[in-house]
Amino acid sequence: MTEPGLFELDAVVVGQPKRSRWRRYVGPALAVSDVEGIPVAQVTYTDDTYSVLTKASGELILRIERLGPAKFRFTDAADREVGTAGARGLMKTRQLILQTEQGRRLLLTRPGLAYVEWHLTETDPEGDPAPEILGRVTVSTIDAWIGLQQYAVHMSPRLDASERRTVVASVVCLQLLRRPPGAGTAPA
Fold first, then answer.
1. Which run of H or of E encompasses 39?
2. Most buried pick, 28, 80, 124, 184, via CB within 10 A?
């Protein structure tokens, strides 16, 4: 029996790998694992405009291109666009608007600045009636001294692999918006 692929999993953890406080860290910017902690992928920053999601073997899964302060484009290994994410307004980490490869629009929204959980929905959560929640992303600090962040991503079994790919890529974007490469450790 083969292990499920990254985008077949209902839950993944995207986080900054643990590192020494005393030595310069050389390694991936983010590690992606299943809920048991088994690594399935990693994210490296090539520069301020590109991030690369690869399998543990180094094989390219997804390229995340930053097109502006809060706009991202996702391309696969064949350089085809497979999704986008973007934010509007002054509070860029309050809501990301996602577009999947098939054109489905999803919203990843945090109810308020004090919340540590984002909800994945098809419609704006502030609308009436309250939308169905298709997933949750919960952020936590795993090392307060250095300020390392971790995102637990739980997705509905009804999301297909391409929609899950967009959700996982958007969590990388969320990390880039909250803690751009080369920035300090305090989240935005």
1. strand 39-45
2. 28
CA 144 to chain centre: 21
Q: Environment class of residue 7 by beta-carbon count within 10 Å: exposed (0-12), middle (13-18) or buried (19+)?
A: buried
pLDDT tens digits along 60-75 = 999 999 998 899 999 9
What's phi and psi for 5, nearest 5 deg?
Answer: -75, 165
Per residue in 91-112, pLDDT (tens digit) is 666 889 999 999 999 999 988 7
- Rounded to an integer, what distance in angstroms lies between the CA atom of residue 86 and that of residue 97? 5
Please report the sign of the dihedral spanned by the C-alpha atoms of residue 87, residue 186, residue 28, residue 136.
negative
Tokens describing residue 175: 């990390």
Count of C-beta atoms within a 10 Å radius of residue 126: 10
89: region left, alpha or beta (phi > 0 left; psi from -120 to 50 alpha): left
What is the chain's pLDDT, residue by residue, as a tens digit (188 residues)?
Answer: 335 689 999 999 999 888 767 677 767 889 999 999 999 999 998 777 899 999 988 899 999 999 988 999 999 999 999 999 998 765 666 889 999 999 999 999 988 777 889 999 998 877 767 788 999 999 998 877 777 889 999 999 999 999 999 999 999 998 888 766 655 444 44
Cα 138 to Cα 110: distance, rounded to the nearest angstrom: 10
